[in-house]
Amino acid sequence: QLQLVESGGGLVQPGGSLRLSCATSGSTLEDYATGWFRQAPGKEREAVACISSSGRSTNYADSVKGRFTISRDNAKNTVYLQMNSLKPEDTAVYYCNARYGLTYWGKGTLVTVSS
Asked: Distance (Å, rounded) from C-alpha 66 to C-alpha 57?
């Protein structure tokens, strides 16, 4: 069973940057497609970005295109989300997930964008 632990969240000013990490264990990450989701207060969880198991294919929500970059290092069993030009509306708990038949979720990391 795959375990996922997110890190890298925090408080950042508008226009700033953060890099989230999702460390995995318990199984071989290279078998899994992975993604980042977020849930803002009072809103439903939404997909932010996803990356194929090989890393060759990525997709982004329109709201983050050109600002966020998803990547993965299968040798380190880690998935990343580089977030630039952050906006207050990016404030949310960010979750990592991995899919290979079953879907696994981390517990999330809070990102707050505020001046």
From this structure: 16
